[in-house]
Protein 1
Amino acid sequence: MKKIKFKKVSDLIIDFSKSYPVLLFYIVSNFINSILLRLFTTGSFQIRALFFDLGFVILFTAFSFLIKKNKKKTYYVITSILMVAICVINSIYYNYYSSFVSVSLLATSVFVQDFGDVIVEFALDFKDWIYIWQLIGLILIIIKYSDREKNVKRSFTKVTILSIILVGIGSAMPPYNSWSRFIKLWNRVAVVNSFGVYTYQVDDLFQSLKPTLNNMFGYDNALKKVTEYYDENRKEQSINKYTGIFEGKNVIAIHAESLQTFAIGLTFNGEEVTPNINKLIKESLYFDNFYAQVGVGTSSDSEFTYATSLLPANSGTVFVNYFDNKFVTMQNLLNNKGYYVFSMHGNVGDFWNRDVMHQNMGYDKYFSKSSFVIDEEYGLGLSDESFFSQVVPMIKDIEDNIGEPYYGTLITLTNHTPWDDADEYSDLNLTKTIEIDGEMVTRDYLEGKVLGRYIKSINYMDQAIGNFLEDMEENGLLDDTVIVIYGDHDARISKGNYDYMYNYDPVTDSVLKPGDEWYTEFNDYDYELSKKVPLIIWSSDMEEVKTISVPMGMIDVMPTLGNMLNVYNKYALGKDIMNITDNENVVVFKDGSYVTSKIYYSARNNEAYAISNGIISEDYISINSEYANTILDISNDVIIYDLLKELK
Ligand code: GP9
Ligand code: MN
């Protein structure tokens, strides 16, 4: 029998490197560079990124087989220059922004100017240029060696398949939420960590082209439609008793992460979850039927809709995909009136692309993570307590050195899902104690449950806000300042958790079922309505204190609060709620569902759920559904075709 001879792997490699020295060097060196880039920037070494990096370089190699023999070396050099440039630029950029560069950002002139400064300031570090070793090595090898010729077609197919296999293996590895990050691309660091820098840069290129592709089709039509819409439906600045009541006052708007209305006013074992907010509400205009209207851009969508009175885009996220477009915002209107406008947040500056978008929105300055001492961390980062305590002297400094009036957005962080440290920062007792057969029995109830952690986290946020307001007062910063608090969106806790909270029976230690005597119904619509978030407007000399229950969306904040500050946005699609006398308003959600004072309409089920008594006509539903579609459509066209640039 003939003996099959296996060659040793080392022999195979030696053979291969003798036959294809240039190709081998090209693959290995570019692969090493991408690993170095991650190590020198984020310090991450995720195994899945290795598969993507290698798969990417091998795919580039596959294309080399389609290139004529005499051009092949040029191909290796040009593509290597490209990959080395990606590494060098990203390395320099990371020093300054703690993030990775985007093709779309480079396209904005403001940014290019900034980046020019960065190069001058930071490009002197040796480690940023180390990647060039690859080009030097490649040229030396090309001068000395040449690769053997191969069967072009077969090699191309084989190598492409190898690349696909590598990417496939990488995709099957954790973290499993990385594809959603890949598509949204707002967390660039995470994308580079799990896909490698080359794949990230291609992803970024496609995402950056999206708006341009959109613009190529349908622009004229959209412009005509939107112009007509504004001509027919423009809401003039309202004149009511609230017009200008806060004119010239400072404003501090607290963007309260995931704060839902249902938690406000709750008590457990006699203790209030939100004692400070409850107290504040008693001295405020409180909107208790208020909804966020976010899409995939969550926090950033909320900021966008609040500022512009437009709904978020249908695809992509305004902060990430349309950051360069023209918008009329509360911030730039106030800025034009002489306000100093700033934002403060304990997370990294490029999260949701805020460092770029806030500038576009009219903020004079965004104080992000690097402006704070990170001395206490919960969940996503700097704790709210520490954040707020550092914010007060910063505001004082603004008041003393820049002057009044000012408008500041303070974005909280600790109440972001998953609230893992909740027991550490709140001692709210969420157990239930009852007497059974003469004995006191304590049940865990919400302790250890996700909803329990969330409620404790809200309790913590309330303390942080309470301390902040006290601190502001002590520093004399509240006298001439309006405080706005809004929940940015719901906490995305599933319905079953609410069923449990409302229907837990401590006697049997089980959850009541429909038909049981004390069962509280909590259906799909109740669940949707429970996503309400609070909106509170407080000022020390508030003449009128009341709770307003007209259905209201984030889209209505700009016209409502704007009117109180006496600024007018003629492209607002929302309404001044203080003008509404019949309780009628339509709050439109991103999926086409909406809520009025009478119904919640679900676009998914094409079904209306009655909120108040009375007969609902078909007409009522069809008129409001049409309105919802129009608002979504006009908002989207304004955003994706950048129509305010033209209309302004
Ligand atoms: C992060 C914070 C959270 O900086 O604003 O964003 P979200 O996940 O809620 O959109
Ligand atoms: Mn948020």
Protein 2
Amino acid sequence: MASHPTLTSSYRARANLPTSGPLASYLLSLISTKQTNLCLSADVETSAELLQLADAVGDSICLLKTHCDIVTDWTDRTSQALREIARRKRFLIFEDRKFADIGETVQKQYTSGHHRIALWAEITNAHVLPGPAIVTALEKAAEATIAKYNTAVHTEISASPRTQPPNGVDEDEEDDTVDETVIEPPMEVENEERRLSAKATDRKQSVVSVTTSISMRTESISPRPDAHDEDTFNLDTATELLRLGEVPFLRSLLLLAEMSSEGHLMTPEYQKKTVEIARSHREFVMGFIAQRSLNSEPDDNFITMTPGCQLPPPGQEGKKLGDNLGQQYNTPRKLILEQGCDIIIVGRGIVRAQDRQSEAERYRKAAWVAYEERIGKNQ
Ligand code: S5P
């Protein structure tokens, strides 16, 4: 594998590079703070199991990957509850939608329909098979979603009669009489606590009840987490997470450049074109789904996320693992240390374990040790 500075840089150092977009920067800082480069692929079929899994494993991951269309009873409540767990346990959500259609269609698939992915998933992914317009279309849809959210929150805050209290809610400020011409954030307002209604035409100064969750999310719209000195990093994780702040309301895309499945058709030429498309959308495309780092130009700072990862059972080290349906597995060590990947994506290796929580920790540690070895531990 050709050497590239990103292979030996720490996640934190990469978070602070100008080539990291704001969400990528946040994710890299989060990985560094939580010391986890593990993404859980939560491929389960009910909302209850999804939420239970997210809660059990949340402390060990930086990212939770969903396939919302395999959850039989998915509703807006599922995404809200998942977001709440993500906020509490501090991880990002990645909907593995693998868009692959014309621009107009993917915009609708991303923002509408039953799942309305753009409202709750910070990250999604796409094949570039239809050409580069798929990226432009998704980027525009993402921008519209963010703008709508910011407008809703901004309108809410600016309608407030006085400075927002530090902890959000001031019950005395509530005025239940106003609920016409409702402005809502993109997330549905089912949660009793999130009273965002504001009368647009007659914006009474006493209308708004700004809740804790909204005030926190508003603060986190800031474009980039603060850069920290390496040596402030001995503070405990909770303090660091507080300092990092909430996940910003931003959206980002991964491009599929190389799959883990046997006989996939993504040739080196296809991969090269994929990287070129990513380079012309650096703000929106945070990285790739690939089996190795594809960073090669000086400005490349793409994040490589890699599925097809399992730890062999004790005594079977070195054995080639698969699932008899084309999936091929590599170890965290091989992917992170030898292939230069940044985040391992693990599904059945954790989901099918008896104790998912401790199995997630085992994967987290293996991937983290491999990363430390890659960058030279004491950096
Ligand atoms: O090349 C790929 C790309 C993806 S996103 N190979 C994959 O396996 N995936 C996804 O990663 C796949 O859809 C599944 O959700 C997960 C792997 O799950 P596991 O159970 O095999 O770890």
